[in-house]
Amino acid sequence: MTESAIPPHLRVPRTVPPKRNPPVGRSSFASFSHHLGENLKTLSIAYIGLQSQSASWAELVDVMKAANLRLNEVDGPDHRDRARWVDEAGYKTLMIAAYWLDPAQFRSWMASAGMDWVDPIAPSDGNGRFLELLWPAVDRVETIVSSFEGREGFGAIAESISEPIAEHGYWGSMRDRLPVTQVSTIDAGLSGPARHDSPRLSVVRLDANACIIRSGQDYSDTTGEERDYYLNEVEPTLRRGMDYLRDEGRPIGCYINRYVEVLDEQYAETERTYSVSWWTDMASLEDWAALHPTHVAIFGGFMQHMTRFDQDAQLRLYHEVMVPDAEQQEFWYLDCHLGTGLLRAGAATTT
Predict the structure, then answer these.
(1) Residue 126 above 90 pLDDT?
(2) pLDDT level of residue 37 (50, 70, 90 thresholds)
(3) Residues 272, 216: contact at Cβ < 8 Å?
(4) Rounded CA gap, 299 and 145, in Å?
């Protein structure tokens, strides 16, 4: 038996039909959704980034550890993880993804440690820094995981996990898992992104219903044939698709895409990766997922992997999707190169 991915307290009478009507049945592979607490109204997220073209990884880690200490203060997050990548301009980048359940604690942290991180009055240390902030209402968030034990992203602080879900295994299931789509088509906004530049600091705001997806893989428990198959067949296809979105995604609605390696608490390598990308709206993401050759190849590769290893598969997959309103997001960039993150999303005004 399956249940709806939308938790009972967020279910309302539908005025917008689901993509599958009704969403019944079971796909070949069971998937699950994480559920936040009934009393939670918003989920707060900060992507805290540090970049340099010339510094070593060790030097960046030393700087980032100081930022991590600020996350340990009284208003720090309920969960965090760490990642690194080299961006398309050749800049080494470290990032902490931090999650808060209490919006007041998030706002308090942002007013102190957050603003200190992107303070244009502070002397430059030669590195770029960014804060990418989201605080979507919980009806604008959905998640899916391939394993009942998967606890990545905000799943690490979710209150519960569902039984196998019905909204899975068909194109449009992502939209059907999002509670707000019971009553909204979540169309793209009309005004577009905006960027405000001042000396050293730029602030970007996206339009309503921009779509953010974090999609990850954990292959740390794979062994033998499954491990070889993932690393030699599946992952290269995934990487090609991620590079396509990074380099050529703008015309199809993808503002940015990062394919990153997750680090442990000591900033050492792990066998976990994820991509995080920002889209103009969910429809653009859906079109790429269903129709574009790069994602068709990714989807086919993962399906072949799961079919090949079936119940013995140890590869764990997940994603979390957010579609915040215009007032539920803000992006700050200090001393960053102009291709960083959402700086390239909007036309700039300058003071």
Answers:
(1) yes
(2) very high
(3) yes
(4) 15
Half-sphere exposure of 160 (CA within 13 A, CB side): 10
Residue 297 structure tokens: 């190849």
Q: Which amino acid is at 119?
A: D
Structural contact between residues 219 and 230, judged by C-beta atoms closer than 8 angstroms:
yes
DSSP 270-317: EEEEEEEEEES-HHHHHHHHHH-HHHHHHHHHHHHHHHHHGGG---EE
pLDDT of residue 107: 96
Q: Which of the residues 34, 79, 305, 319 is marked catalytic?
A: 319
**Cβ partners under 8 Å of residue 41, min gap 6:** 103, 137, 138
For residues 211 and 238, give the distance between their C-alpha atoms in angstroms, rounded to a whole number.
20
Residues 6 or more apart whose CB falls under 8 angstroms from that of 85 comprise: 93, 258, 259, 260, 261
The band of 348, judged by pLDDT with boundaries at 50, 70 and 90, is low
Answer positive or negative: Cα dihedral of 226, 227, 231, 237: positive
The answer on pLDDT for 26 being more than 60 is no
- 98: nearest Cα among 153, 57, 161, 42: 153
Catalytic residue status for 79: no
- Looking at residue 63, its pLDDT comes to 95
Burial class (CB in 10 A: 0-12, 13-18, 19+), 199: exposed
Which pTM value belongs to this model? 0.95
